[in-house]
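agent> fetching stored inputs for the 4'-deoxy-4'-aminopyridoxal-5'-phosphate docking request
agent> found them:
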Amino acid sequence: LEAFSEAAGIRPRDALGKLPRYAAGKPPLTVEGLESFKLSSNENPLPPLPAVLEAIAAETSINRYPDPMTTALRAELAAHLGVPATDIVTGAGSLGALNQILATFAGQNDFGAPDEVVYAWRSFEAYPISVGLAGAVGVQVPVRADGTHDLEAMAAAVTERTRVVMLCTPNNPTGPILTHDDVVGFLGQVPDDVVVVIDEAYQEFVRRPDAVNGLGLYRSHPNVIVLRTFSKAHGLAGLRVGYSVAQQSLTEHLRVSAVPFAVSQIAEHAAVTSLRHIGEVEARVQSIVDERTRVVAGLHELGWTVPEAEGNFVWLALGEHTQDFAAQAGEQALSVRAFGSEGVRVSIGEEAANTRFLELCAGYPHRP
Ligand code: PMP
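agent> prediction call returned; pasting tokens
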């Protein structure tokens, strides 16, 4: 296929050739006598709520296009979050919502020079891909040794070409949050015409009381967009629903670059139903947070150092042992996410999966 398109002189935009590929979490190897667990995509390990499954099954009009404005979902979210529905824009996962933000605010200036998007690194692996896809260039600011954003360095990296800054809290894959005071201080250092996206994909798992909550900030900061998802806490990763929250002056622009009908009515109905059963969702989230507490305490007991884990995952800064550890996890039928020679991210999964992960760590000779 490659040879054929070359022969026809067809090639993708230059910017695309340089993009890294998104590596989706691999399912675990099957190991004789062991139940396999997938701890590589920060998914919710619990099965869907029965009410959500019923809502999906009851959806009979899929021969029709969905409501392009996702009116029912935005109304339900508005009531749930205490924000006006006009401030909410939905998308196919928060990744869809993010691509919409970048397509709207970052690309090339009128003279063809690429805009800049500043983000921490390592952070969510989709950022460089989405930024490149939009035609902009990424400016990566290394996270500190403890896995936190270096906000001083990020503010210093903002130039007159910067259109967007991404903040990820809790940061995927390293785990720590940004505090409210951190973000307020940062916003004070960034020009008002730079869009600051606060990616809160894991917000529901956060237990630190001083953590930022973008919903409490965006009304006083017209350049802030909060990114949330139904993929993690609500366990609807397979249905693809996410959303942006920002002042109407920004959401108006975002609606222009929306992929029409990005959220199917099945996904919309499932998300509405999940919000209507928020008590059950919260109880499940708490059970995952409890498992996270057990895993982190277990790692500490074993003498492992891990960064603050406020999402549904832990980060093992294993350096040169990264790939080896991931391979050993595979032998225990656990799939984990290895990042080069930096470290391994392990999602909090089923109780049995977490226990097996701790056993693996107990026997592993190189600990961060
Ligand atoms: N942001 C962050 C920080 C994530 O980790 C993820 C998923 N891994 C996403 C956004 C995208 O999730 P989704 O598109 O499923 O909402």
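agent> quick read of the result: The two ends are 44 Å apart (CA to CA).
agent> awaiting further instructions
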